[in-house]
Amino acid sequence: MDRNPSPPSSDSEDEAVIAGDSIGSTVYSKHWLFNVLTKLIEIITPKKDEDSELNDEEEEMELDDDMENDICKVWDMSMDKDVALFLQEFNAPDIFMGVFARSRCPRLTEICVGILGNMACCQEVCIAISNNKNLGEMVLLRLCDSDSPTLLETSRLLLSCLSQSEVADIWVERFRESPSVYDCICFIMSSSTNVELLVKIGEVVDKLFDLDEDLMLDWIKKGSQWSVTQPVDDSPNESPVLKIVPCLLEATKQICSEKNSEGLDVYMHILQLLTTVDEGIQTIVQSPDNGKETWSLLHNLFCCELCQPDDPPIIVQEQKTLLASILSVLSAIFSSQSRQEFVKIEKNMPLIDSLIRVVRNLDECVKRSGDSLNKSKSEDPEKLEIVEEDFHLKIVKDICCELLSNMFQEMSKEHILEGLKQGHLNEEKCSCVFQNLLPLYLSSVKSFLEVLREADPTLADSLEKNFPSSKLQI
């Protein structure tokens, strides 16, 4: 008799039967699950008279309502470790491979990938799935699917596997050996409007780049090559490969339009990872359009969305990881493209103002953290958390100071006069900058003071009084 996986009745005789039929310590029925998987096998096994017609019938199929309800129950059940292990023992992954190979029903494919994703949350099952070469290759092929729900579940499955240190290298190598995956991922990032999918595929890319710098370099280099896999109308044999940076920017714009902070964090971190290698910086700035678009997008995010004048100083605590990523990329672009029009100081005075505001807020947060530490009488989790927060804030501060130092060193008399006129610079703001730049960036402070003396001698004198000449060595 069929039973769905709902809890059993309280009848004692039924309980005795259920006890022998239950999966592990759950109340789910082995018999019911066998029945569902058997039906699934029947769906993907063509009858003899249908086999010859299979290749001619490419239209999508709908999943029977009863079967969809049952397989969705299996999807829910598979989050349980006992069920995941039982499915693995029953060779369910092999059945799902059959679905991937034969099914013309996107909903069924989505559900089966989703079940695998749940099963992969169990370490033992994840290792078994990852060591199945054929299954691994078929999972990667799902990234070329046109169905967004299937792509989402595939990304979730891949992220689960990449997050398991025991098998992460196996998956990184599979990505290396599957050239089409790069094109598929870039296509998703550049064209999808499904923010949930964009976030998840971004997490996969972020994890891949974090795990393997060589893979990141390979993907960077692909942007300068040509592909023979996607023909265009006027060139039947080749078309330009999608470049990683423009695709990342397109995904970021879509995520920003939905105000998805989680996704923004992910994509900014990917861009930050690119700037950790020279090739990554070059792929951002080698094209004036790429560099300008990246700079403009991040500049607007930083100056118009983050750490605004009416925000409390503590806001930098909430935004610290995002701030670190954005500022790292801006700093890398400014250092490598200082002669480009879009990074000229006269076009970026609001950026200097925003940087000073962040530094000032950081000083306030550090002061508050120090006060909290002084009040702490004993070791406790809150104290450890404060120390950790200070570490992250220091990273943001270091990046801010580096970028401010480079920008101050580029400022002319005209820039300073315009900054003073617009309110981006004044004595209080300059003092804040000096306090944080000294003594590490002494040369930048000296350079700025020399130019400031030409623009506003009174302000220069006042700053020198607050920061004595012996300290500045002027």
From TrEMBL:
Keywords: Nucleus
Keyword Nucleus: yes
Residues in the signal sequence: none
Keyword NAD: no
Gene Ontology terms: cellular component: nucleoplasm
Source species, domain of life: Eukaryota
Cellular compartments annotated: Nucleus
GO terms for biological process, alphabetical: positive regulation of synoviocyte proliferation
Chief location category: nucleus
InterPro entries assigned to the protein according to its UniProt record, in alphabetical order: ARM-like (IPR011989), Synovial_Prolif_Regulator (IPR052464)
Family under the similarity heading: Belongs to the SAAL1 family.
Name of protein: Serum amyloid A like 1
Source organism per UniProt: Anolis carolinensis (Green anole)
